[in-house]
Design goal:
alpha/beta; 10-stranded mixed sheet; 14 strands; globular; binds nicotinamide-adenine-dinucleotide
Length: 360
C-alpha cells in the first residue's frame, strides 16, 4: 500500500521526534511491504521565520492532498521567543487552529494508557493503578462553548459576560459515529459523558448518542455525568474504554486522564474529520527547554504514528506491531530521561527511535 503522509516537524523538539517516528514507519514499510511517501511542510515558528505567517495556503493544500498528517509540535518559549511579540493571529499556535479548521478536524482522540512498566509514575494509589488502564477520550473539537457566540456587556452599571453553548444534532451524530466506530476496534464500550441533569445541549447529546448506538449493537453504551466522570477517572480508571464527550468537558477530562498516567512523553493524539483523514501528534508541546539535545522522548510521536496506521490506513496489524515494539523496549528497561527510573538504561531520542524500529 502507498501511504501519502504530510509531515510537520514544527519547532523545538518537533523535528527530532518526527524523525524517530519516520524511522519506525520506515521499518513498518520494510516489514509489511508498504511505500511511505513523505512531504514536509512548515508550520508554527518555523513557518513564521520563512514566510512571516504560521501556516501558508500552499502548506494547507499539501496537507489536504495527503492521506494523513504526522506532526511533531509547534511553538517556542512563550516568554522569550520573538514569535510571541507578534499579534495573536500570527503566532505559532494560530497555525494549528488554522489547519484544524481548514481540514475540518472535529474529532479529537487522546489515549491515556498506563504501561505496567511505568506504573511508578502514576500518581494514583497502588491498589488503583495496579489494575492498569487504557482509555481513549474522544472529544468534539469544533463546536460547543468554545465556538459559541460570546460577548461582554454592561447592564445597569454591572459588567456581564455571556458565552453560549450550542450543538446541533448533526455535530453530535458525526462524533458519536466516530466514537462507536473506534470502540469497535477496542473493548467495545462507550461512556458518553454529559451534564444532562442541567443542560439542554447535553439532553440532545444523550438522545442523539442513543440513536447512533442502535446501529452498533455490539458496543455497550453507558451515560455518565461529567462531575461523576471526573471522580471515576481517579477512583477506577480501569472501567473506561472510549469516553465520548463534547468540547469543554473533553478538554478538561483529557488533561485529567493524561495526568493520571504520569508520563507526558508517552501520550499520543489524533484529530480526525469525517473521512479517513487525520492529523496525528503527541499530546505534549515543543519542549523548547530540551530542544536539540537528543534527550526528548519520541514515544508519544511514535504512538501517534501507530494511531495513524490504525485510523487513517486501517492497518491494524502494523499499528499493533508499533505498539508492541514500544512495550518491548520498555520491558527491556530502556528509558529516556523523562521516564527514567532506577535500574533502567537511559537512552537518547535517536537511540530510543532505533530501539523501537529494530523491534518491528
Ligand atoms: P511542553 O509540553 O512543551 O513541556 C512541558 C514540560 O514537559 C517541559 O519540561 C518539557 O521539557 C517536558 N516535555 C514535553 N515533551 C517531552 C518529551 N517528548 N520528552 C521529554 N520531556 C518532554 O509544554 P510547554 O512548556 O507549556 O509549552 C512549550 C511550547 O509548546 C509552547 O510554545 C506551547 O504553546 C507549545 N505547545 C504546542 C502544542 C502543539 O503543538 N500541539 C501543544 C502544547 C504546547
Amino acid at each position: 500500500m502507498e501511504l501519502k503522509i504530510t509531515c510537520i516537524p514544527g519547532d523545538g523538539i518537533g523535528p527530532e521526534i518526527v524523525a524517530e517516528a519516520k524511522k519506525v514507519l520506515d521499518a513498518v514499510a520494510r516489514k509489511y511491504g508498504h511505500t511511505m511517501n513523505y512531504t514536509d511542510i512548515l508550520m508554527g515558528g518555523a513557518s513564521i521565520d520563512v514566510h512571516g505567517v504560521p501556516l501558508t495556503e500552499e502548506a494547507i493544500e499539501t496537507a489536504r492532498n495527503a492521506d494523513a498528517v504526522l506532526m511533531g509540535s509547534i511553538g517556542g518559549d512563550t516568554s522569550t521567543s520573538p514569535w510571541y511579540q507578534l499579534p495573536p493571529n500570527l503566532r505559532p499556535e494560530a497555525g494549528l487552529l488554522a489547519i484544524r479548521k481548514a481540514l475540518n478536524l472535529f474529532a479529537n482522540l487522546r489515549p491515556a494508557v498506563l504501561y505496567e512498566e511505568l506504573a511508578d509514575a502514576c500518581p494514583l494509589r497502588k491498589e488503583i493503578s495496579e489494575a492498569g488502564f487504557d482509555i481513549l477520550i474522544m472529544r468534539e473539537l469544533t463546536g460547543g462553548l468554545y465556538f459559541g457566540e460570546r460577548k461582554t456587556i454592561e447592564e445597569n452599571g454591572v459588567v456581564k459576560a455571556i458565552d453560549t453553548l450550542t450543538y446541533d444534532e448533526n455535530e453530535i451524530r458525526r462524533i458519536a459515529v466516530k466514537g462507536f466506530e473506534i470502540a469497535k476496534k477496542r473493548k467495545r464500550k462507550v461512556t458518553s459523558v454529559d451534564k444532562a441533569n442541567v443542560l439542554d445541549s447535553s439532553r440532545l447529546w444523550r438522545r442523539v448518542v442513543e440513536e447512533v448506538a442502535k446501529d452498533y449493537p455490539e458496543v455497550t453504551l453507558e451515560h455518565m455525568l461529567v462531575d461523576n466522570c471526573a471522580m471515576q477517572l481517579v477512583k477506577d480508571p480501569a472501567q473506561f474504554d472510549v469516553i465520548l464527550t463534547e468540547n469543554m468537558f473533553g478538554d478538561i477530562l483529557s488533561d485529567e486522564a493524561s495526568m493520571v498516567t504520569g508520563s507526558i512523553g508517552m501520550l499520543a493524539s489524533a484529530s480526525l474529520n469525517d473521512t479517513r483523514f487525520g492529523l496525528y501528534e503527541p499530546s505534549h508541546g515543543s519542549a523548547p527547554d530540551i530542544a536539540g539535545k537528543d534527550i526528548a522522548n519520541p514515544i508519544a510521536t511514535i504512538l501517534s504514528a501507530a494511531m495513524m496506521l490504525r485510523y487513517s490506513f486501517d492497518l491494524d496489524q502494523e499499528a499493533d506491531a508499533v505498539e508492541t515494539a514500544v512495550k518491548r523496549v520498555l520491558q527491556e528497561g530502556y528509558r529516556t530521561g523523562d521516564i527514567m527510573s532506577q535500574g533502567c538504561v537511559q537512552t537518547g531520542c535517536r537511540e530510543m527511535g532505533d530501539l523501537v524500529a529494530q523491534r518491528i
